Amino acid sequence: MANALSAAPPAAQPKQNERNEAWLTFWARRPLPILQSTKAALAGFAGRLDTVRSDEIIAAVLRDPLLTAHILRHINQRKRGSLASDVVALESVVLLMGVDAFVGQFARLATVESMLLPKHPARYFALLREVATTRLAARLAKDFSELRYDAHPEEINIAALLGHMPRMLRLLEAGLPDAAPASDLDELPPLFARWSLPEVFSSLLDHRSPSSQRSLLQQAAVRLADKLQMGWWQDGVAADVHLAAHSLEMEQAEVWQLICGALLHFARKDWPYAQIFPPARWLPMLPGEWPRPQAKAAPEAAGKPSFDSLLRELQRAGQGSGTFNQIMNLSIRAQAEGLGMKRIVFGLLMAGHNLLKTRYVVGAADDDPLRSLQVDLTAPHLFTRLMLKPQSIWLKPGNRAQFEALLPRGVRQAVGEGDFVAMSLFVDDKPVGLFYADNHGGPLTEAQYNGFKQVCQLTGQCLTWQAGRLSRGG
């Protein structure tokens, strides 16, 4: 009798599997609502489609986990050829659809508020709490990924935003016109598979089989964001801080300081949810002394970014969703604002013509010859040598006699007197152009030359990351 009982399969399990399958089918293609604040932002973009930047649009989308999920499901469920790859990055969706179609289509989605208010305020507040928690998880995961120098931070950010999707969908069900099937499904891989989302999101969030330090850190960030809503003393918080510290090879106190910084940033600058309390409310209960507030920096100093901060902004653009133009603009800004270069030129390699042609110019007058500079690379000269591999030159009084005769035809007259620096720009092992910078006839310093090389090298790395994203369809 005991053997017969132990061998009998549980009767409830098949029925539950059927209910879960019905629930997945129910949500497979059903449009997801968006927050009213997101809809307002998209409406604002619709009024200035000629000037809106893709990074502005993406920043607004990433504040709304439901819209992020809807967009990625929409683009990955499209009909595509066998060679088409999964789309991971939102920037790629904007490129595929175009700004007009992107804004127009997603701005028409219904809002969470229209579904849940005024009849279901408790569910609405609960949903806002889930949104806020996932955004905090995304912030923590992003901070961890930067310390790991993660090559694909956009995957980290989006995976964290999607981490509570089953809970959000169940909260929305009260406002639907038709009843959703009952389900207790809380695992993400089945839902992501039904939505045709890229496998990387499931691998990052599947707690049943964390396959790498990357996924362990990701899941720690998601758990911490969830537990810290109820207080820093909750079970598991210390264990996840220890896990993150071990993975990042940092002291636990340093990791905890990073987490507290993220909580305070959200409470002070990025918590638009007046209906719910931010998790930083529990921090005053920590033992020990609290630092006194520091005086605000003078407006002049606060308004001028440092060279290091500009480099970090350039790196984030390369590792994130920055386009070619955005990366180049940040590179030139680092040279102009961070290093104080007076004239900056980027000559783009016209491969079919073996020619360098001015693409970007900053600081040159309208009649400056640098604006229309073209350098023929078929003849042997200094710039031809520079384009053979990533290398640089600083033309100054000590070497002018040696190198001035090697300048290409027309360049000597265009650049005038004084020092200048130049460096070739490569993406992987392919030359794409050359940066030139000077102080408009004045001398340059060793620090400016070293900083110039640093900016050019980082720009090449950022463009290499960007090219990799495009090749993967991300």
From TrEMBL:
InterPro entries: GAF-like_dom_sf (IPR029016), HDOD (IPR013976). It comes from the Bacteria. Gene3D superfamilies: 3.30.450.40, Hypothetical protein af1432. SUPFAM superfamilies: HD-domain/PDEase-like. Residues 32-211 form the HDOD domain. This is HDOD domain-containing protein.
